[in-house]
């Protein structure tokens, strides 16, 4: 083996070692970040908020009731989660179905969980 090829081979080996070292540091940082995020989420995902309930009064005004029905069965899409799964076809036909306080889906965002 001549000197030039020996130097090139050694240079290549050194370069590979440097690349692997850099990749191992990057992977270590990524693992540290993922573990840190997982710990943060595990500690805070089910946090309860002790917030006083607003003073809500039931209105008997027909305009207010009509506006509420419009929102629930229309743009707010409340009926999609707060009714039975097989009833959405009826909603599409304009039938006003009774709502359930429980959601159909099991997922509930943390800010909406009951304390």
| Average pLDDT for all residues | 80
Specify the number of helices: 4
In whole angstroms, how far apart are the ends? 75 Å
Number of strands: 0
Largest sheet, in brief, is: none
Q: Report Rg.
A: 30 Å
Q: Given the C-alpha coordinates, what overall shape results?
A: elongated
Roughly what fraction of the amino acids lie in strands? Answer: under 5%
Amount of helix: 40-55%
Provide the low-confidence segments as ranges.
Answer: 106-115
Structural class: mainly alpha
**N-to-C order of helices and strands:** HHHH
Number of domains: 2
Properties at a glance:
4 helices, 115 residues, 2 domains
Describe the structure.
This protein has 4 helices and no strands. The protein folds into 2 domains: 1-48; 62-106, no CATH class. With 115 residues, it is an all-alpha fold.
Spell out the blueprint of helices and strands.
Blueprint: H1 3-44, H2 62-73, H3 78-81, H4 88-92
Quick overview:
The chain is built from 4 helices and no strands. It has helices at 3-44, 62-73, 78-81, 88-92. The model is unreliable at 106-115 (pLDDT under 50).
